[in-house]
């Protein structure tokens, strides 16, 4: 309401109108996508994440148990296989999609920080290898692998912390399951093969 008492020139009014129009379109498209395109259980997970719905025994159960497990780990954790939330199966999918909360409960904040540091080091090395490739294909391929790894790690840890919706993405090279492990191993192996070809002068 206070904005009505300010004097805007023509340029400011056009800018405000564009921002308002873009906001309305974005909200409408997002609302249509969430409630008309996504499956009902996916929409419910988003509502739980945003606090629009409270479902501790349904869509919000995994997230609540994951937060409890991560918080109970403290600074140094409870020790290997000593986490109560994971040991007594309160956390579903704790060896696959929610394996990060298992690590956080057993090894605490510093163990989780070490894991993130290792992922960061791996990403830096992948980008360094990608940058030194002589061919465009090698550089694009290397940066593509780095981006895929970064998105997987960010989404997986974000959903266990309640920052992103639960969508079932495994933690690369950590989650139990053959398909994810084989996929990332193959992608990194191909990048290393391209880099070894660079050092040997193979084009």
Largest sheet: none
C-alpha end-to-end distance: 65 Å
Discrete helix count: 7
What does the average pLDDT come to? 84
How many β-strand stretches? 0
Task: Fill in the keyword field for this structure.
203 residues, mainly alpha, 0% strand
Describe this structure as you would to a colleague.
The chain has about 200 residues and is mostly helical. About 65% of the residues lie in helices and about 0% in strands. It has helices spanning about 10-35, 40-50, 60-70, 85, 100-130, 135-160, 180-200. α3 (about 60-70) packs across α5 (about 100-130), α5 packs antiparallel against α6 and α6 runs antiparallel to α7.
Give the topology.
Elements: H1 10-37, H2 40-50, H3 61-72, H4 84-87, H5 99-131, H6 136-160, H7 178-200
Tell me briefly what this model is:
This protein has 203 residues and is mainly α.
């Amino acid at each position: 309401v206070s904005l009505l008492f300010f004097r805007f020139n023509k340029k400011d009014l056009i800018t405000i109108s564009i921002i308002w129009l873009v906001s309305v379109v974005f909200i409408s498209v997002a609302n249509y996508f969430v409630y008309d395109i996504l499956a009902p259980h996916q929409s419910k997970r988003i509502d739980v994440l945003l606090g629009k719905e409270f479902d501790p025994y349904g869509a919000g159960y995994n997230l609540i148990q994951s937060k409890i497990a991560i918080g109970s780990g403290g600074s140094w954790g409870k020790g290997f296989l000593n986490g109560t939330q994971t040991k007594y199966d309160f956390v579903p999918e704790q060896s696959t999609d929610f394996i990060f909360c298992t690590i956080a409960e057993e090894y605490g904040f510093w163990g989780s920080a070490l894991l993130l540091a290792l992922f960061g080091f791996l990403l830096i090395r992948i980008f360094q290898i990608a940058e030194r490739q002589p061919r465009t294909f090698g550089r694009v391929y290397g940066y593509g692998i780095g981006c895929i790894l970064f998105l997987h790690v960010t989404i997986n840890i974000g959903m266990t912390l309640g920052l992103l919706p639960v969508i079932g993405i495994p933690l690369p090279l950590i989650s139990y399951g053959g398909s994810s492990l084989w996929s990332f191993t193959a992608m990194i192996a191909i990048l290393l093969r391209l880099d070894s070809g660079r050092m040997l002068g193979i084009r």
